[in-house]
Design goal:
877 residues, mainly beta, Neuraminidase, Immunoglobulin-like, 6 domains, six-stranded mixed sheet, 73 strands, disordered N terminus
């Protein structure tokens, strides 16, 4: 069973006959927005958002489907209001309250219940606001509530001791259900599943559930921002909740899976209701043997079985106008799914409308079974359809327009559309394996028929691909855009680039291929128009000559270069160009400065037969050596590193890197193929720069001043650090001091609590654990120590003992702090002290108690009734 405010209206009872119509169309959810100061509603999928009515800080909300009314509490005016469901006809029902929070309805009893967290009580009144009564007093900040009308219980959240409690509807039998919570804001009851659901904000920021007695607590959704109100859709297995901080309404399955945004862009949504499927019930009521006439209250209970003692839900309709025995009511039944299977039974009770005593209800017997005969379930958005006709086993239609599946705006005779990430498919399957599956395309005119594959959603644009039967030629054509690119004629000839192929394959245009063979695969041909070819031949090969005189004869008479490529196609071998001698002389390549082979080469590349090195020589001197273990020496024949440069002094022992004027010069260091470091003269900045693989400046030495910069190329002092913190460590690696970019001075402290403490939390000295701190839990605490630094991602300017303790605690400077303005709004300059809300500060209004309890001054404002983080100047007193 959902929250009573979400299951408002009631089904009517009939004695003689009834006709029921059930609507499963678009259902609605309603919510309050405390910052926008208005009530709103939308479809359950988040569409069609509407503004309904305005008031000051609306919070709780409830709907009476049968009466067509919306009820809500307004913390800004301390009143309870109601209107029609569209927001018209506003009425003030109850005034002079303290801080009314949530509201629930018991339509059958003609009562509304609400929590007043300012007065620490739960109250109730008649639906018209009369006869206000205290139900439970002496509570501690009661907030969200829900009614279990079938079980005769009320459940509520208590944000003082942070728990969920329940009692009988008359206020007796109070008991704790779940304790040890953080900041529970709202609760919802599922009688069908035997569960209660709640949102827990503060430091928990999650949704949980348990059994009705509080056992079996489960975390359903965690990591939320600031969940506020919760509502259940039992029929569809969904829960909806409002997140006050991020301005959203979200939903998930009842087990917490499949979380999704439903409505976004809101200001500060608070509490929420979800309307169940509605049922219109018509009947005739008899009073003994006579026909009833006048106003009556009706109570409706739904059961799974005729003899069940525990109803699925209980609701009602007030002041039903019965005329000559006939009546019609519109009901919403939580957790009851009507599908025509006869699975539900209705128990109806009736009393005269002027009664306020639930004992006056007379239960009618027997219970009425909901079967397919007395009611009909209509498909969503379906209306009367006269286009489709049935003849035997055939169904056919002659629509004058178009048919759309998945779209209300079909652009062709049959238009199928979907917006899922899955494929959109049409399946044609002949389950008789002796037949075949076919898709026919035909036309009675001279037009072509076939398949068009579009590159856009617009059917009037040429398809990216078209496969058409050409009715004129009988060919099968492939088109892109509006042009035929390939044709298969009725002789079996395939044409590419031509519509009149004369061979099995007829290509109009150039063909790129690696090789050509004749039909018998015995001869190999080269393309004579190609400028580069390769092949294997048995005889001599001539390149640039028709009369080769050797295995390879290369000749050219142009001014361009003449090149030879040697390739061994057997991958087990290698390609080699051999130069050899039978003497002790070195072998290699000589590059001559003239055409005479007897002239000493300008360059010589020789294999040193003695050392096995590869030497580069100019004249008769070795200038560079590549050893057989891969080391390169310049100026030395015995390199000891990958690259070894040797000279006898300046300048020979220097490596010169030179660039054009205004250009950089330096080194780039790699690890594998990944750039790791750059060391270079940064011309534009005028200094030596060391940069990392992201090319961010790490170290820079300025040429003109000698200043050194870390993270900057414009150091203004002998050492300038930019873009990060400065950390000073001891010799054993322990952090001593960190200078950061924040605005506060913080020291490291250990805390007594084992649970995670969020940044912005107010801490006090733990008197039971010397040297440790704890979360503040009372107002005007003289043991106040500071605020956990780092809220809103802002680090500290100075950190002592960084990383060596549980938390950094701001002792001075500017820092964001948790502030509770429930009792008093906060303005810049107000002195702040500890509050009864754990880890929160508040405005100091009792100056006698303020001595020694002040933790700082507010630098931002926070409206009364709000909780959040504001900027605070820490000045402990």
């Amino acid at each position: 069973m959902m929250k009573c405010r979400k299951m408002l209206a009631t089904l009517v009872v009939l004695l003689v006959f009834y006709v029921v119509g059930i609507s499963k169309g678009q259902r609605k959810m309603y919510w309050t927005d405390a910052t926008a100061n208005k009530n709103q509603r939308a479809n359950l999928d988040g569409s069609a958002v509407e503004d309904l009515v305005s008031s000051s800080i609306p919070t709780g909300i409830a709907i009476d489907i049968a009466g067509g009314k919306m009820y809500w509490t307004a913390m800004g005016t301390d009143k309870i209001y109601r209107t029609n469901l569209d927001g018209s006809g506003s009425q003030t029902l109850v005034g002079g309250l303290s801080t009314p929070y949530d509201i629930c309805l018991d339509i059958a009893a003609g009562k509304m219940y609400w929590t007043d967290w300012g007065a620490d009580k739960i109250q109730r009144a008649n639906l018209d606001g009369s006869n206000v009564q205290d139900v439970i007093t002496g509570l501690s900040n009661p907030r969200g509530m829900d009614l279990d009308l079938a079980g005769g219980k009320m459940y509520w959240t208590d944000s003082g001791p942070y728990r969920i409690r329940r009692a009988n509807l008359d206020g007796s039998g109070i008991e704790d259900v779940v304790t040890g919570l953080s900041t529970p804001h709202d609760v919802a009851v599922d009688i069908v599943g035997g569960k209660i659901y709640w949102v827990d904000a503060g430091t928990a920021d999650k949704i949980q559930r348990s059994n009705l007695d509080g056992s079996g607590v489960e975390d359903l959704v965690t990591g939320l921002v600031y969940p506020y109100g919760i509502a259940l859709d039992i029929v569809n297995g969904k829960m909806y909740w409002a997140d006050n901080s991020i301005g959203k309404i979200l939903c998930a399955n009842l087990d917490g899976s499949s979380v999704e945004d439903v409505v976004t862009g809101l200001s500060s949504p608070r509490l929420i209701v979800v309307l169940p499927p509605t049922l219109t019930y018509q009947g005739r009521l008899l009073n003994d043997s006579s026909v009833a006439d006048g106003l009556y209250d009706l109570r409706f209970s739904a059961y799974n079985e005729e003899g069940d003692s525990n109803p699925l839900t209980v609701t009602g309709a007030q002041d039903v106008d019965v005329i000559d025995g006939y009546f019609t009511v519109r009901l919403g039944l939580d957790g009851v799914e009507f599908n025509g299977d006869g699975a539900h039974w209705l128990e109806i009770a009736v009393r005269e409308a002027n009664s306020t005593d639930t004992g006056d209800y007379v239960t009618l017997s027997p219970r009425q079974q909901l079967t397919p005969t007395p009611y009909a379930v209509y498909a969503e958005n379906a209306g009367v359809d006269s286009d489709w006709m049935v003849s035997g086993n055939n169904m056919y239609s002659f629509p004058s327009g178009r048919v759309g599946i998945g779209t209300m705006s079909p652009s062709s005779k049959l238009h199928i559309e979907d917006d899922t990430t899955d494929d959109v498919q049409i399946t044609i399957h002949n389950k008789d394996n002796s037949g075949s599956e076919r898709l026919f395309f035909g036309t009675s005119t001279a037009s072509d028929a076939g398949i068009l594959v579009y590159g856009s959603t617009h059917a009037s644009t040429p398809g990216k691909w078209r496969f058409l039967n050409n009715k004129t030629s009988g060919h099968f054509d492939w088109l892109t855009g509006a042009s035929v690119k390939m044709t298969l004629n009725n002789s079996g000839y395939l044409g590419i680039g031509t519509m009149s192929p004369t061979q099995k394959l007829d290509v109009s245009g150039s063909i790129t291929a690696s090789r050509y063979y004749d039909r018998n695969n015995t001869s190999y041909y080269l393309d004579p128009s190609s400028t580069s070819s390769s092949a294997k031949f048995a005889g001599n090969v001539g390149i640039g000559t028709t009369s080769p005189s050797s295995k390879l004869h290369v000749e050219d008479d142009t001014t361009g270069s003449v090149q030879v490529t040697i390739h061994n196609k057997d991958n087990s071998g290698i390609e080699r160009l051999f130069f050899g001698t039978s003497t002790s002389s070195d072998a290699g390549i000589l590059v001559y400065g003239s055409t005479s082979a007897t002239h000493r080469g300008k360059w010589r590349f020789l294999n040193n037969k003695t050392s096995g090195h590869f030497d580069w020589l100019t004249g008769a001197s070795v200038r560079m050596t590549l050893t057989n273990n891969g080391k390169l020496g310049i100026g030395t024949m015995n390199p000891v590193g990958g690259l070894h440069l040797e000279g006898f002094g300046f300048p020979d022992s220097f490596m010169y890197l030179e660039s054009d004027s205004g250009q950089d010069t330096g080194f780039r260091l790699y690890e594998g193929s990944t750039v790791k470091w750059h060391l270079f003269n940064e011309s534009a900045a005028g200094g030596l720069s060391l940069r990392n693989n992201a090319y961010s400046s790490v170290l820079f030495a300025q040429q003109s001043t000698g200043n050194v910069g870390i993270g900057t190329t414009a150091p203004a002092r002998k050492l300038t650090v930019r873009g990060g913190n400065i950390l000073i460590e001891s010799s054993d690696g322990t952090d001593i001091l960190e200078l950061g970019e924040g605005l506060d001075y913080a020291e490291g402290f250990d805390v007594s609590e084992s649970t995670k403490i969020d940044a912005g939390t107010v801490l006090i000295i733990d008197a039971d654990n010397p040297g440790k701190l704890a979360i503040s839990v009372k107002a005007y605490d003289s043991k106040v120590a500071g605020i956990v630094a780092g809220a809103k991602g802002i680090g500290s300017g100075v950190r002592l003992g960084a990383g060596g303790f549980d938390y950094d605690v701001a002792l001075a400077g500017r820092v964001y702090c948790n502030v509770d303005a429930t009792e008093a709004g906060v303005e810049p300059g107000d002195l702040l002290t500890t509050s009864a809300t754990p880890g929160y500060a508040m405005k100091s209004t009792d100056y006698a108690r303020a001595q020694g309890t002040i933790l700082g001054k507010a630098m931002e404002s926070l409206e009364k009734g709000q909780k959040g983080q504001i900027l605070v100047l820490v000045t402990l007193q």
